[in-house]
Structure formats: C-alpha cells, structure tokens
Amino acid sequence: MSGTDTIDILLLGAGGREHAMLRKLAESPRAGKIWAAPGNGGILAEAELANIDQNDPAAVAGFATEHGIGLVVIGPEAPLVSGVADAVRAAGVACFGPSGEAAQMEGSKVFAKEVMERAGVPTARYKSFTESAPAEEYVRELNGPCVVKADGLAAGKGVIVAQTVEEALEGVRECFSGTFGEAGSTVVVEEMLKGPECSLLALTDGTTVIPLASSQDHKRALEGDLGPNTGGMGVYSPVPFVTPEEHEAMVDIERRVVAQLKADGINYSGCLYGGFMLTKDGPKVLEFNARFGDPETQVVLPRMKADLVDVFCRCDNGTLDQADVSWDDDWAVSVVLTSAGYPGSYEKGKEITGIEDAEALEGVTVYHAGTKLEDGKLVTNGGRVLNVTAVADSFEGARELAYKACELIDFEGKTLRHDIGARALRGRDAWEV
Ligand code: AMP
Ligand code: GLY
Questions:
Q1: Which architecture characterizes domain 194-327 according to CATH?
Q2: Residue 295 CA: which ligand 2 atom is closest?
Q3: Which of 327, 328, 329, 346 has its CA nearest to residue 337?
Q4: How many angstroms separate the alpha carbon of residue 124 from the centre of ligand 1?
Q5: DSSP H helical segments within 32-103, as ranges?
Q6: What's this model's pTM, rounded to 2 decimal places?
Q7: Predicted pLDDT of residue 2
Q8: Are 235 and 334 in contact (CB under 8 A)?
Q9: For the domain 331-431, what is the CATH code?
Q10: Does 192 sit in the ligand 1 pocket, CB within 6 Å?
Q11: For the segment 279-314, what is each residue's pLDDT rounded down to a tens digit?
Q12: 8-96 has which fold?
C-alpha cells in the first residue's frame, strides 16, 4: 500500500486497553503517525504525546484538525459521555466511539434499562429511585439479596452486590449520601442474578453488528473471587463453557439493542460492550459499556485477525458490512500486576524491571497501564500497573506462560491473583447457579 493511503491517528486513554489498541492499530498498513493523550509509559514510548485534555471536546477536535488527524480513537468512557466523538465528527474527522447520546448506554443505567425494555432484552428486574426512602422501602419489600447501583459513571465503584437487606440499605444510603457525586443522585435497585459472567464486545456502525470473541474478567481483588470489586485483576478469552446457543443469544441481544437505538433515532457506532450473566434461564444483561473493556481488550485484540484501522473507519462511515474480521484458534490469558493496596490506597514511583525478559518469551506481550517514564526509568504510576498477556494453543498453556512471564517482572509492592482462569478450567460446575 502506498504512503498516501496512511492516516494519522489520535488515541485517547491511558490504560492497558489503549496500549493493546495502539499495538493493533500500529500493525495496520494504513496507520500513519500515532498520537496519544494522555498515554502512559508504554504508550508514549511508541506514540507521540498530544498535550490536550482527553475529556475536552473542543480541545480534541481542535488538535485533530490542526494536525491533520484522519481518525480519533476513544478508549475510555469519560470522553465519550462528555461528547468528544460528537465534536470530532462535527469537525469532519472520523472517530471510533459513540456519540454522547449513544454513550448513555453506559453513562446512565436507567437509560440503558429503558432501551433494554423497549428492545425486549432479558435483564435483571429493577426499579429506579431519586430519593432514599422509597428505595429503602423497595429493598425491604425484596427482602433478600439484591444489587444497588448508582445511575451514572462511578469508575466501576457504584455497584453494591448486597447479600442481605442490611447491606442493601447501607448501599442505598451510601449512594444518596453523595459518595458517588452526581452519579448517585438516581439509584437502581435490581434483582440479583446468578451464574458465571461473560463479556461479549461487539463492533457496530449502527446497522451491522460484528461480535468479538467472548472473554471473562475477574473483578474481585482477591483469589477465590473474594474482596472488593476492582477495575479487573485478570481475564481470558474465549470463555470455554459458553454454549453456541448462549453465544447466539448474546449476539442477538446486542443486535436488538443497536436496532432499538436506531429506531429511537440514535446511531450507535463504536464498540458495544455487553456484560452478561449466564443464568439457568439464558444470558441476561448486567450492564452495557460504550467502549472496549479493560482488561478484556488485552486478550481479545491479540487473537483478532483484522486491520483495526480499516475496521474502526468502517464503524464510523457505515460500511462495517464489508469488514474482514476472523479469529486465531489460540487462547489468551492476561494477568494484571497491581500496586500493593489497590483498589485502596497504594504508593507510586516504584521502578519496574523485567518487562523485556517477559516479552522475550514467545507469545507474551506486556501492556502498560499505570506506568510512566521518569528520568529515563520506568516506574509505577497507578493501581493497575501492567497486563501480562500470553497467547498459546491451549488454555492451560496460556495460563502457565502468563504466570511464568509475571515472575520475570518486578517492582516493589507487585501484587497479583494467581487464580486467573482457574475456576473456568474446573468447568461450569464451579459456578453456583
Ligand atoms: P456493573 O457495573 O453493572 O456490571 O456491575 C459490576 C459487577 O457487579 C458485575 O460485573 C457483577 O459482578 C455485579 N453485578 C451487577 N449487577 C448484578 C446483578 N443483577 N446480579 C448479580 N451481580 C451483579
Ligand atoms: N472489565 C470491565 C470494564 O471494562 O468495565
């Protein structure tokens, strides 16, 4: 392909997800210069810093036009919800990521529930409240396990999975006390679903929906799926026990949601992330996100055979039906290395060593999350520091390889779960349903 066919790209975000996107975008023959904002130690070693606020629509659109950017790729939810994609498209630049209105699928749980209701999609029964007293009354009425959710974006912290009425009441009060700011001014109380969780990301241009490979995140901080929720401690793909019927049901749900949004006058383009519970009555939606998952992306993209620049442009320009996406037969496992104390408080600035040795193992890629370069040294700069992804021809092989690579990396306070994928290897019976 000639040089004139390449396009310059601006990538927004600072996590392992964006590092995985960067690596895949850079593989494309159509990728020109890649800029990143704000990036991290790994991203900025491979892309040039764009010194702008990723959440400021005018700043992002202005940078894109000034620098002749041909495609803006939005990784996280915050810029989407603040309308960055709208501003970029209004400036005549292609953008991967839904409009602010479409991103309400993630930005408001009530909005998403209402779309699901209209689309006739299975999800947990719920009620929403803007005051504490009626919410508390509903919790007492349910008189058992339930889930309390702040309506808006709360960085993954606004969900309380309550086993008892007391815990649920406490959750309701916490939401309304302002802990989650504006996000908690409306609260959803819903029935508790049981089963294994499964993430199914899909690409869409608003009409065509291309499901990506299934994956399973490990949200809890401690081994055995105990402890507080985190941004994700590890992940694998594909999910071995999903039946073809379940897979088809999840894809059908995503197609119906995209079609419903279109019927409502909203063109959803970008990635629609479906978070599902595989219940004994079939898959039910736990949540939708308006973006790629983190850390799901770190196991999905390495197995994907596609030109990511081409696919992202097609999501934007409505020609996704002509995209070419297929999958390696391999398995991928990614283990998250965190700073001691995460998801609570932790220290930063610890020197990281061993990444090159880990990546020297065939099939291993280390994606950076909370890292930065300081005086020529790579140091920790966040709770989730690195994602160590291994791809191999068996699930067990990928697990072993990922953990072997994790041992080669070191920094003070390095913490990890040793049981990523272990429950799935025991089979579906390892989940209570
Ligand atoms: P969400 O951000 O809505 O996906 O919720 C975060 C996590 O809380 C999910 O990944 C599940 O582990 C759990 N969760 C959310 N909703 C429910 C539900 N209705 N039943 C059981 N667990 C849930
Ligand atoms: N892995 C969970 C998320 O991306 O929201």
A1: 2-Layer Sandwich (3.30)
A2: 1
A3: 346
A4: 10
A5: 43-46, 57-66, 77-81, 84-90
A6: 0.94
A7: 43
A8: yes
A9: 3.90.600.10
A10: yes
A11: 999 999 999 999 999 999 999 999 999 999 999 999
A12: Rossmann fold (3.40.50)
* Model confidence pLDDT, tens digit, residues 229-272: 888 999 999 999 999 999 999 999 999 999 999 999 999 999 99
Beta strand spans in 28-154 (E): 31-38, 48-49, 71-74, 94-96, 126-129, 146-150
Residues of the chain with pLDDT below 50 are 1-3
Question: Would you state the structure tokens that stand for residue 261, as one six-digit string?
Answer: 């949004």
**What pLDDT does 156 receive?**
63
Helix (H, G, I), strand (E, B) or coil at 20: helix
Euclidean distance between the first and the last CA atom of the chain, given in angstroms as a whole number? 52
Give Cα 264 to chain centroid, integer Å: 25
Query: What is the pLDDT at residue 228?
Result: 85
Find out whether the beta carbon of 161 lies less than 6 Å from any atom of ligand 1.
Answer: yes
Amino acid letter, residue 380: T
Angstrom distance (rounded) from CA 193 to CA 83 = 32
Residue nearest to atom 9 of ligand 1 (CA): 286
Domain 131-185, CATH: 3.30.1490.20
